[in-house]
Amino acid sequence: MGSEFSSAAAAQAKKFIFVIAAIAAMAGLLFGYDTGVISGAILFIRSQFSLSSAAVETVVSAVLFGAVIGAACSGSIADGLGRRKTIIITAILFSVGAIGAAVAGSVHVIIVFRFMIGLAIGVASYTAPLYISEVSPSNVRGALVSLNQLMITIGIFVSYLVDYALSGNNEWRWMFGLGAIPGIILIIGMIFLPESPRWLISRSLHDRAREILRKTHGIQDVEKELKEIQGTLTQKSGSWSELLQPWLRPAFIVGILLAFFQQATGINTIIYYAPTIFGFAGFESAKASILATAGIGLVNVGMTVVAIWLLDKLGRRPLLFIGMAGMIVSLGLIGLAFMVGASGMLKWLTVGCLVLYIASFAISLGPIFWLMIAEIYPLSVRGRAMSIATVANWGFNMLVAATFLTLTEVLGKAGTFWFYGAVAVCGWIFCYVYVPETKGISLEKIEGHLKSGKKLRDLA
């Protein structure tokens, strides 16, 4: 009878935790959609409002500025209000921002509401994976946290399809406005979800945490789990200065540098400039370039699904090594193609290389950065540490997006992609030397390892 109860409870817990992760990951869908949709909408906004190039850059970058500020503030917000309430607030900002941008009567109003969406993206980009990681059992944590990354890629892909479908009638307002739908779904869904048990324990709400752990772990006796979590807590939340203490510094540095390598290897040159790159390669039709971009987005989605399947089987490090090697090869070949300038063959070689690049990124740096920063920081400073890593990620994002076209003028198209390839080589070496394997290891054991003074790389 006991085993039957245990089996039934485990099955119920598995369903419950997947529902939690699926709803919370809607924040990732909104992240992806609102990041990608501007690539099509800006063409029609520029025409309607007769914008200069500087004004176009302001409209496009409003989300990125908002994301940096949102990420900077979000650690304290999530630690103070809790993960669940923070996600609800971001969902409200997403919805209001989408509707506001859609009905805007001037470009200044568009900028304001796109900035609001950026704030939501900055907060959601780390709060959602943080929340999922803290409610998930360690044996499925990698897959569930990476579900957020999958939803980001789906959001980007959907935004490309929406842009393509509405481009014939110049319906940029609908492009923005449709983003309110997943925002409203996220608000409703999060109302019915529990708070993170780890956050509840940090607020001495042990009974509520115990009840949630039973539901998510499918076991009656959760006292061991409770004690492990309590053992990681101090009397008060960690301070900002704690992030630079010798025992925590390695994890802090790994998070920042993973953010750097995720962005500085050129991913957002593909997300923001894929049609431009295809134009460089010889695609003369804008519509053909957008369609090719949608194809890249579809590959991104598919390979992220593969990554989710493999993360808790192969582990984080093998996927990093394989994926980053593929990025290095593809960036080198793209540079070679632009150097040779193989006329009609150039565009198809470029398509093939970009497919390899995005597939390699999607199984490595894409999901693993967000997963790793949700795993390697102690509970007492997890919100603050993830906030800093996320701010760094968005800062490097802005830097890459703002310098790509300038780099092509200074280094040439081939030189630009070889530069990203050289950064990727450095990233591969860094991951091999410093990034730990966290597959199947509880968050509490990871924290204990750090406090023991052992090398982070030796975790597994």
Question: Would you write up a description of this structure?
Answer:
80% of the residues lie in helices and 0% in strands. It is globular. With 460 residues, the chain is mostly helical. The two termini are 37 Å apart. It has helices spanning 2-24, 26-36, 38-49, 53-81, 83-103, 107-135, 141-166, 172-177, 180-191, 197-202, 206-217, 223-231, 249-264, 267-281, 286-311, 316-340, 343-362, 365-375, 382-410, 412-434, 443-451. Residues 1-5 have low confidence and may be disordered.
What's this model, at a glance?
80% of the residues lie in helices and 0% in strands. The chain has 460 residues and is mostly helical.
In round numbers, the mean pLDDT is 84
Order of helices and strands: HHHHHHHHHHHHHHHHHHHHH
How many beta strands in the DSSP annotation?
A: 0
Calculate Rg over CA atoms: 22 Å
Q: Largest sheet, described in full? A: none
Low-confidence regions? 1-5
Residues in helix, %: over 70%
Apparent shape? globular
Strand content: under 5%
Number of helical stretches of at least 4 residues: 21
The SS-based structural class is: mainly alpha
What keywords describe this structure?
single chain; 460 residues; mainly alpha; 21 helices
